[in-house]
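Dear Dr. H.,

I hope your travels went smoothly. While you were away I took the liberty of generating a structure for the chain from your last submission, since the lab meeting agenda had it listed for discussion. I wanted you to have the full record in hand beforehand rather than looking at slides cold. The sequence, exactly as received, is reproduced here:
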Amino acid sequence: MSPIDIRPQATPPMITRSGLPERVALQLERLISGMNISAGEKLPGERTLGRNLNVSRTMLRDAIRILEGRGIVSVQPGRGIFVVDAGLAKTIEAVSDHLVRQDMKATDLVEARRLLEGEIGYLAATRRSKEHVLLLRESCQLMERLINDGAEFMREDLRFHGLMAEAAGNQLFPIWMQPIIMTLLQISPSSVSRDRRLRVLECHKAIYTAIEAGKPVAARKAVDKHIDQFVADVGMARGGPAR
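The corresponding predicted structure, in token form, is as follows:
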């Protein structure tokens, strides 16, 4: 299928770095939703998108990463950027909002995460493709560069877990996992401490290494250690206080 054509009616004003990538992501999302694009359709290349939105390539990539983390687009190395089912993204967001409104126990969320994500790590190490490995490695590298930017780091943190769920090869896993991770990050965002972000990064590197090496047991252990680190960082204990 050929790339879709996105042409703004007028040239938008240049968005500066101070405008934040979220503004570009919102602009791109509105273009996608406003054109009734079907899931699976390919977007134009980065150069065309950047020219049409009048933004730099770096800022465009930041915006695309945000939309990918939200499940709106999928970046496939060597193939391009594809639109994901918008209904799925809205479902994930709705479930996360519901969990927050219900004042869900953090211990319940962690217990569910431990059960699901351990198996996701195991299967990701078994089923991952070269593209999945590349995306997970790039995510770790990006988190390292974002170590001093709490909000951007947290966003990439969420994206890493989404990529791992995709690598596991089961379409239900992102639906189950993303709302849990999103809610936990809202309860205790990783932006609160640079030291904590460093610990998250090291855990992600360990998970990536096990998945890349095709070691499912090691991947499951690395995920469990990551969750243990999260529990320690937020002052929880297994079976301990609800919040």
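Two observations you may find useful: Confidence is low (pLDDT under 50) at residues 1-19, 237-243. The two ends are 49 Å apart (CA to CA).

With kind regards,
E. W.
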